Amino acid sequence: MKRFPLTRRNILIAAISAIVISSSAGVYFGRPATYRDVPFSDLLTAFERGEVAGIRASDDEVRASLKSGAELRTTAPAGYFAGNAELVASLARAGVRIEVDGSTGRMFTTMAALLGIGMLGLVGFTAWRTTTGRIPSVTGRSKVAGKADTPVTFDDVAGVDEAKDELREIVDFLKEPARFARLGGRVPRGVLLSGPPGTGKTLLARSIAGEAGVPFLFASGSEFVEMFAGVGAARIRRLFKDARKHGRCIIFIDEIDAVGRSRGSKSLSHEEREQTLNQLLVEMDGFEGHGGIIVIAATNRHDILDPALLRPGRFDRQVSVGNPDVRGREEILRVHARGVKMDEQVQLLRIARGTPGFSGADLANLVNEAALIAGRSGRDAITDADLEQARDKVMMGVERRSLQLTARERVVTAWHEAGHAVVAALLPHADRVHKVSIVPRGRAMGVTMQLPDTDRHTYTRDYLETQLAILMGGRAAEQLFLQVETSGASNDIERATEIATHMVCNFGMSPLGPLAFRKQDEGGGQKAGFSDDTARKVDDEILALVTRALETSRRMLEERRDAVKAVAERLLEIETLDAEEIGKLVN
Ligand code: ADP
Ligand code: ZN
Predict the structure, then answer these.
(1) Whose atoms come closest to the Cα of 114: which ligand?
(2) Catalytic residues
């Protein structure tokens, strides 16, 4: 149990501890499946004319969605965006949504982060230039973070003390491999960091390199797949060849699951992945006598990894990194508060209490947002109010005022969200409703945000059934009061299905009893242990849970039509309601 604390269940728990129920925007539904291929110059012209709403870049392929709804696809000159931070910054300023995949993503992330910090006037231009200047060409995959990058140490990683303790030995080894071996330490080879996204796995790996003073080679599992046969394996070879040149170093492979998925599972790039994985295993097995190289891999899907990866001599040290608890969150906030000016009144512990379920990355983002909010209002220190506003923003997503809802869509959204909010306000086991809003954010047309009073580590059946009813509250309101069913409920339905599936398959909360049911294609080297007949029963129970939840919420809303109406009308009037207002309207 203890060795594999990161199960799907923990991921679910992390995902629902601070709940935002959102209604997906209908516009995504109508997205055309085909893109128009155009020359690169057309894209630049579209930028210039301000016609572009968002771009999605993956290596050198760029897809742009125009405000008109059209979609373009083009090939950018290699490294074009990476070498052109100015352009990226001006696009971002103009409100163009920028999404990036794969290795290109790292470049953008670095730039975006640096640009953000730059705005706060904390990092000089030189630092920025040295870093962007280091961005490698698209062909040279592994990125070496050398001396020019600010070294990261264990002090920069907070709230993961146990992981740090386990990793200290790796630092000792990297510092002086020969001495370490002489003193009888068991020479480590591979470390697998597993945990949800944004918990600091990459940061931890970098800090090991920083502590030991060795180079850090970065690669992402997704770079090794989705390609022609043999390319992934060749890249692995090159990565290790690079590493051997350095002697002592860390190879970090993010998203190892992209390569190391259990071989039993079927998928398109199956063979390619197999070759890549084999090459990785060959390289790791060939380490004998090579002393100073440590491979650190990260994943958030520990459960689907090929067992071959976890054998002795490969990733035989497994360290799990979870979302931080209150104390951890306070420490992480403190780390990030170092870079900004906080008002003396600010109590980080209070903010930490109000952010259950937040990852380290969320908290970093929160501090960053708070600094921007403070800056915008002309204050030179961040206040409690700024932090709280930033918290809401991080939780609910960035407002997208450019998304013009029709009058009808607005009305439907208001009633839909009111449905969620009223069910949540009435059910005894529900987390407090913190905010309801019909301002479009990201892909959502509206959100209902709940905030638990304390961290939750386990869930009772009552709580989960309550959550299902709240999720169904939007659809129930659509049916009851507007006699429609919209695609806006798709995200609710997806999440309800996921929760109900866990209840039946993992938590033993159905008449099928306390058994674990695993789908055939889940992999993990385990065979599904049940018959088709059982599979049908599992499906039936999942359906029953969700259907019952929909009935519950319909019954409640029918009884409290007045409350739903009051909340919906007030939402149409002022767009966002807080806890107090919802309380007044419902009770
Ligand atoms: P992961 O690799 O687990 O997805 P990252 O290491 O990329 O997460 O985290 C992204 C950013 O979030 C970090 O660069 C850091 O700013 C912040 N962060 C995440 N976890 C922590 C932590 N435990 N302590 C301090 N900062 C953190
Ligand atoms: Zn909804």
Answers:
(1) 1
(2) 417
